[in-house]
Fold these 2 entries.
Entry 1:
Amino acid sequence: MIRFIHTGDIHLGLKFNNVSFDREKAIARRREIWNTFERIIQYAKEKEVDFLFIAGDLFEEAYFTIGDITRVRDNFKSIENVNIIISAGNHDYRGRKSLYDRIQWSSNVTIFGGQAIGKKDFPDLNTVVYGYSWETKEIYDKELFKNFIDIDNTKNNILVLHGDISHNSNYLPLSLQELKDLNMDYIALGHIHKPQILADNIAYCGCPEPLDFGEEGERGIIEGTIINKRVDIKFLPFSRRKFIVTEIEVNENMNYLEIVERIKNIPEGNRDKDFYRITLKGYISRSIDMANIIKDLEESFYHIELIDKTIWDYDLESLEEENKDNIIYHYIRTMKEKGLDDPVVKRALYLGLEVLLKGRE
Ligand SMILES: [Mn+2]
């Protein structure tokens, strides 16, 4: 039996320059990614796994320093009983001046090269691990498996690879069928940040920490075992924070406090920790001060972005009364005849009124 952890797409060192949260949170997020990486290392030690597979994009080449890579090395060195296997990806590609080659690694670390698929034998564990590191930022068509030699089926065979399961990609296009045809016991993939188990023995682990609002949902690592050539994997949530994008419906009968409470009681996630982007929809009383709502909520959430898509509610009877001589009256009458029970008509009426009333002012 062998035990492993599969991770990748950690993006250590990322600076978060183009995100919607502020500088302070960006700096904190950068530190959190380091902490999560170090939690993975600790977890691998506690669980006494045989292998830690890192399927590329361990770090951000553009922002990484020799000090940073030294910190990575020291982490790896601290779990010398765990075999660490790295296939570099597009963000940490192993080019001529790669940081991977500027440091002395402990003997438990294997970093694959980029000419062809490499192979490392672990006879004590009856396991062979295959891998391949990117040497450039993009790979169009590599025909990686063209000359792939038959594997030894008496051993556990594992492939660690960073690539894109897609017909047309600049990021090492792969097909699920060609991967299946390799007859590996497990294929640990990286590149896609959303965790996806593609077959019993093929998975993207996803990033352990989500990087922005495009990366909603649970993030974590994959834990697995191979017993008598049968792989068993499970996804383990591991991220410190989540990104949550959702909508909340309000109505014209809700007062200020009720609206604030409705948002605070959002069922998804944990407002002390997670990043929220909430779109507010429905009709809202004209007396509600949206700017104040946002201020009040900022104190209750670690991070909240409120997108206001509400429609102002109007007192139709008094509007008709005040506008007996003009178009507003006729507009309300016409729409009422169409039937305000139809939500599309009601929405059209209220949006139209907003325009007409603004024009009048
Ligand atoms: Mn990638």
Entry 2:
Amino acid sequence: MYDAVIIGTGPAGLSAAINLKLHEKSFVWFGSAGYSDKVGKSEKIANYPGLGLISGNELNQRFFEHAREMGLESTDKKVTNVMPMDDYLMVLADNEVYETKTLLLATGVLTAKSYEGEDELLGRGVSYCATCDGFLYKGKTIAVFCGAPRYEHEVEYLAGIAEKVYLSAGYPDCKLDLPNVEKITPIKAVRGGMKASQIELHGGTVIDIDGLFILRNAVAPGTLVPGIETDGPHIVVNRRQETNIPGIYAAGDCTGRPYQIAKAVGEGNIAAHEMLEYMAKGK
Ligand SMILES: Cc1cc2nc3c(=O)[nH]c(=O)nc-3n(C[C@H](O)[C@H](O)[C@H](O)COP(=O)(O)OP(=O)(O)OC[C@H]3O[C@@H](n4cnc5c(N)ncnc54)[C@H](O)[C@@H]3O)c2cc1C
């Protein structure tokens, strides 16, 4: 059983990880190995105190160096589900289960909307995890939304299992070129009865499928943690960064505007201290 799990290697997750490490807690830290895509995209950051004008890439590099100096290690497994149990939490990432006393959601804000039908058919032909569910589609026809180049290896893995893959890439210049992979225009909806059986593309084309894999950077909070209180795309927290579920905290963009690095770092710090208090009470 871990003391904590942190989901997110952006500024909020890093800030919490530094503080938990200083307090010598055992924790698993999930998130992109390149740290925050969002920070990396910023050409110039002018409002983070002490660093003057700095590019997003440089700030990410400094975050990375700080983590390395502190001996922090992250894993780029994607968390697909969190299940609150009576007095602990179960976290599912790439088909592995982790048990923890506390959890921090520092997942950033999900800007993309779900596809029509996605929420209803999740677990019934719609999956967020190639490693977990890929084997179910041996010799079948699937569609895949690949949200970032870092998921291309998952598309390759799926193409090795399925007979045919319809690929919608969410970024320009997708270089994937495999004989059984056909690139398609953006997906609008997924449809089906008991199970997903068709996708509809923007423009109206309908394609028959046996399954749809959605490989996005983030999962909507309500899907990731069933029962968590949300307000639109944001997780509802109090000033202690507590969510409505005991032991689960949230920090950074996922809790609401302003979407700023300094806010994310501050909230990550508060959350870590509240998590320490929660652990100390032995709840
Ligand atoms: C173009 C651009 C310019 C910006 N300029 C500025 C600026 O000048 N100043 C400023 O203060 N802010 C700026 N921002 C905003 C800033 O980047 C964000 O506020 C900040 O990155 C939020 O940090 P975060 O830790 O909350 O989330 P993010 O940085 O979004 O990090 C989210 C993390 O969660 C991980 N994650 C999400 N879901 C999962 C999952 N299911 N499993 C595992 N890991 C998961 C991701 O891999 C990532 O590591 C800018 C943003 C953009 C896009």
